[in-house]
Amino acid sequence: TPPSICSRPCSPGHRKSPQEGKAVCCFDCNPCPENQISNMTNMNHCMKCPDGQYANTKRTHCLKKVVTFLAHEDPLGMSLAGLALCFSSITAVVLGIFLKHQDTPIVKANNQVLSYVLLISLIFCFLCPLLYIGHPHMATCILQQTTFAIIFTMAISSVLAKTITVVLAFKVTVPNRRMRWLLASGAPNFIIPICTVIQLILCGIWLGISPPFVDAN
Question: Quick one: average pLDDT of 21-44?
Answer without folding.
Answer: 83
